[in-house]
Amino acid sequence: MNDHVVNRPEGAAMGRRRFLTAAAATGIVATAGLAASEGPARAASAHRPAAAGTFRVPAEDVRHTRTWMAFPDSSSIWGRTLSGVQSDIALIARTIAKYEPVYLCANSASAAKARSLAGPSVTVITSIPVDDCWMRDSGPVFRTDGAGGLDAIGLNFNGWGNKQAHARDALVAGRIAAHAGVPFTAAGVVGEGGAVEQDGAGTPLMATRSSLVNGNRNPGASQAQIEAALRAAYGASEVIWFDGVVGQDITDDHVDATSRFLAPGRALVQMPLATDTDVYAKDARKQYQVLSAATTAGGTRMAVEKLQGPDYDRIRSTNRDFLASYANYYLCNGAVITGQFGDAGADTAARATLARLYPGRTVEQLDIDRLGTGGGGIHCVTQQQPVP
């Protein structure tokens, strides 16, 4: 799970995933025991020697070997929307599989359904069990060294501050790295992939204080300490910090529903309507201001594009937790995969904007309303493995 609900009506109830249950507490306690039971295998993966060279997280637009995803099967988490979100995950997987291989992690009990929905173009594997579908947060962050080397880091996923069961998801990053046969190291920070945006050039990252400089992830750590750990993990020189929004959704406001890097020195921000006054609209405008004033490591002013968000009164969903983020798109080989939400004018304009910003790529817009009702989007449920 990755992102927040953007541009909700003022006074809306608690955001993404309000149907969390008491099972979360059980999952949190179980995490330590499950990790301990894996002991030697996980430790061996974590301490394999890294390849030579300076590793950094590349931009998402580099060539991918494959995309990693996860198939949800917990009715205690998703309730009556489980079947719908499973269909949305399968749709996303099938669409990406037109452009590059997709590996879909599924629990043994739901593997047959995953294969039936996703079809033969998607590889379903059962050796990496999961709690939920938010691979951007639970999965490994792959790094390259520019000399053919590939490794992975884990961000020590803790269920967004121990808010949801994550005994299996806490181990997904290391297990995927082992499956891919690459060295794996735990980062010196607790967080999620959706909380951090990288430009791929080893210069700035983007992140929200509300998510990472937060006692539910990194108790007692200062912003400077967290920034140092992020820079070391991602191979970056600095972090552009946004204030974010605390406590309004389970992620405490991830950056990848609002602001994204287009290239080194270039970014975009999904903008609210001029009439939107909720906390997320205010946060988006502030992110645009901060980025517009930011510079690269070379001192060049950041060029910032605007991506207009939809009118929540015109989208299909009436769910107050709905995430209608075009910015939560995923780049795969030759394509941009994004959402469409039923505001015909805004959907068309978003497609045109993304086509202009990513020339030469096919823009695919998908109806992912069931996933959006859970407060997430396409970037939230995908994780790229770059070509070394």
Describe the protein's architecture and organization:
This protein has 388 residues and is α/β, with parallel strands linked by helices. The chain has a single domain, classed as L-arginine/glycine Amidinotransferase, Chain A, CATH 3.75.10. The strands form five sheets. Strands 3-2-1-16 form a four-stranded mixed β-sheet, covered by helices on one side. Strands 4-5-6 form a three-stranded mixed β-sheet, with helices on one face. Strands 7-8-9 form a three-stranded mixed β-sheet, sandwiched between helices.
Kindly give the count of domains: 1
Strand order of the largest sheet: 3-2-1-16
Q: What CATH architecture label applies?
A: 5-stranded Propeller
Beta percentage is: 15-25%
- At CATH level 3, the topology is L-arginine/glycine Amidinotransferase, Chain A
Low-confidence stretches: 1-52
Instruction: Note the main sheet.
Output: 4 strands, mixed
User: In CATH, what is the class?
Assistant: Alpha Beta
Q: Can you identify the CATH superfamily?
A: L-arginine/glycine Amidinotransferase, Chain A
Keywords: Hydrolase
GO molecular function: agmatine deiminase activity; protein-arginine deiminase activity
InterPro entries: Peptidyl-Arg-deiminase_porph (IPR007466), TAT_signal (IPR006311)
Protein name: Peptide ABC transporter permease
Write the layout of secondary structure elements.
Elements: H1 23-46, E1 64-70, H2 75-78, H3 82-96, E2 102-105, H4 111-118, E3 123-125, H5 135-138, E4 141-144, E5 150-154, H6 159-162, H7 169-180, E6 184-186, E7 196-198, E8 204-208, H8 209-212, H9 223-234, E9 238-242, E10 259-263, E11 266-271, H10 279-293, E12 303-308, E13 330-332, E14 335-339, H11 344-357, E15 362-366, H12 369-373, E16 383-386
Parallel strand pairs: 1-2, 2-3, 5-6, 8-9, 11-12, 14-15
Antiparallel strand pairs: 1-16, 4-5, 7-8, 10-11, 13-14
Helix pairs in contact: 1-7
GO molecular function: agmatine deiminase activity; protein-arginine deiminase activity
Keywords: Hydrolase
Protein name: Peptide ABC transporter permease
